[in-house]
Amino acid sequence: MTTNPTMAAEIKAPILQEYSRDQNTETHLANNPSKTILLLLQGVVDKGNLAKVCHQSQAFVEKGFHLGRMTTILDALRDRLAFSQETSIAYDLEELYRYADKAVQEAVFEQDCFYLDSAVEILTELRDAWLEMMHQSGQLSEND
Fold first, then answer.
1. Terminus of the chain with fewer CB atoms < 10 Å: N or C?
2. Could you give the CA distance from residue 106 to residue 103 in angstroms, rounded to a whole number?
3. Residue 12: per-residue pLDDT
4. pLDDT digits over 132-143, tens only?
């Protein structure tokens, strides 16, 4: 069986188009680490909520996928911590991220959503506090 090369080149996968890289966005995020943290926190909360929906609908493979993404995002958040005597909050955030990650690991096999709810609650509070800090410091306007 042969494939028409013109036709194959014209086919575009819509899911891949969503994730195309945008140099302007990447540059903006590189220059605004606080916004990057906010996006990561939002992403981990979103993945947690998706994992809860999957658990409730007994879509356990999909739940595992979202839990894995949560772990990846938590690793990315931990990688951005700057540990020094002047940044004692970094140590506290490390402990919260570690606790949330352990809860995510426990959520893999749990029958209810106790651990997953716990992780999502902590991460939601962190996201909300980060968002408030960005508004108060002027890094984010009400329209962002």
1. N
2. 5
3. 53
4. 999 999 887 766
121: its two tokens:
């609650």
pLDDT digits (tens, 9 = 90+) for 112-124: 999 999 999 999 9
pLDDT, residue 4, reads 47
Q: Minimal CA–CA distance to 71: which of 104, 36, 115, 40?
A: 104
Q: How many angstroms separate the Cα of 130 from the Cα of each of 93, 98, 116? A: 12, 18, 21
The one-letter code for the residue type at 29 is L
CB 107 within 8 A of CB 113: yes
Buried b (16+ CB within 10 A) or exposed e, 60-82: eeebeebbebbeebbeebeeeee
Outline where 22-107 has alpha helix (H): 23-31, 33-56, 60-79, 88-107
In this prediction, residue 5 carries a pLDDT of: 47
Token representation of residue 130? 């980060």
Residues 116 and 107 sit within 8 Å (Cβ to Cβ): yes
Q: Residue 119: which of 69, 61, 59 has the closest Cα?
A: 69
Amino acid at 105: Q
